[in-house]
C-alpha cells in the first residue's frame, strides 16, 4: 500500500468534524491518516476524541502568546514537527495570520456550514433561515487570506424546512459536513484535486445529474 | 370551474419565462390566465409571443415618460385596467418605484437566475462561475423595495459543471426557471402561498427528501 497522506487537524471545541475524519481514517484503504490534532484551548472536547483514537495532541493556548504571529508560528512548528502535508480546520475559532495561510497555501482547508459565497462568518444557519432561502448546505474550501473565501473543493446542498430552527438546520447540514469533509481529504490524498485560479478541478468525479426544487412538486 | 386568477406579465426582451407561463396557462386546469403583457420597449420579442397567444399587449415606452413615477403610474393603470390580480416580472429591466412596489405589495413576483441571497443584480451566471461555487439555481420571490430581495416562494438548485461557460450554465438554470415560475403562479392562484415576514409558507408542499453533492461521490 502507498504511504498515507499525513493530516493535521486544528480544533477549538467539540470537534465533530474531527470525529468524522477519525472515523474515515480508520478504514484501511483510506489514503490519509491524522498524525496530530492541535487545539488552541486546553479543554476542547475534541482533544478527548483524539486521545481515544491514539492521535498525538498538542495544545497551543493562544492566551500564552503575545501576538498572533507567535501563536501561529508555534502551530506551524507543531504541524511541521509531525510532518503534516495537509491541515484541516475543524471548528477552529481563531483567525489565522497571513504568514500562516501563506506557509500552508493549497495545503490548508476548511469546512463551513453554508453554501459559500452565501453566508460567510458566524451564525450562518440562523441567517440562512431568516433570509427565507429554501436551501443551504456546506462547503469545503482552500483557505485564503479573507475569511470563508477560497477555491471550493466540494459542496453539499440541503433543503431548509419551514419548521426549521437553528438546531434542526445545523443538524441537517452537519450530517453532510461529515460526508464531504472526509471525501475532500480522500480526493486530495489521491491527488485528484487541482486549484485553477478561483476554481477547483476534481478529476474522476463529475456533477450530479439531478436538480432539487423546494418546495418539491408532487 | 372556479374563476381563474388574472395575471399581468411585465417584459423588456425575449420573454422566455413569459413563454413558459403562456404554455402553463394553456392547460385547461391551470388556475391562472395571462390577461395582459406590458413591455417597456416596443420591439420586445416577447410581445410577438403574446400576440401569437392572443394575449392583449400594452407598450409603455419608458422613453415617453418624464420620470419613473409617471412611467410606473401608466403601467399600474394598464394592469388595473385589465383587472390584474398578480404581476409577474419576466426579464423586466427597469427599476420599479417605491409607489409601484407598494401598490402591488404581495401581488408582484420576480424570477431571478441565482440562489438568492447569493448573486443579486446582473451578470449572475458569470459571477457564479467565477466564484468557484458548485451550485447555482433560480429563485421566485415577492418584490420588495431593494432589488432581488423579498420573501422567497420557491427555488431550484442546479450543479455548476467544470466546463460551464455562461451560456451552458444559463441554459441549465433557465430550464428550471421555466419549471418553477409557472409552479409558483399555480400555488398563488390556489391560495397556498402565505408571506410570514421574510419567509413564505406554501401549504400542501414540502421540502425534497434528498440532498445534492458536487462533485458527486460514486
Please give the order of strands in the largest beta sheet of chain A: 3-2-1-4-5-6-7
Query: Which homologous superfamily in CATH is the superfamily of the largest domain in chain A?
Result: Formyl transferase, N-terminal domain
**Mind summarizing the main beta sheet of chain A?**
7 strands, mixed
Total beta strand runs of chain A? 10
Span between N and C termini of chain A? 49 Å
Which features does this protein show?
two-stranded antiparallel ribbon, 10 strands, alpha/beta, globular, homodimer, Rossmann fold, 7-stranded mixed β-sheet, 6 helices, 2 domains, 218 residues, 32% helix
What is the topological layout?
The structure is a homodimer of 218-residue chains.
Chain A: E1 5-11, H1 16-25, E2 32-39, H2 45-52, E3 57-59, H3 68-81, E4 86-90, H4 98-103, E5 108-112, H5 124-131, E6 135-142, E7 152-159, H6 166-189, E8 193-196, E9 199-202, E10 212-214
Parallel strand pairs in A: 1-2, 1-4, 2-3, 4-5
Antiparallel strand pairs in A: 5-6, 6-7, 8-9
Helix pairs in contact in A: 1-6
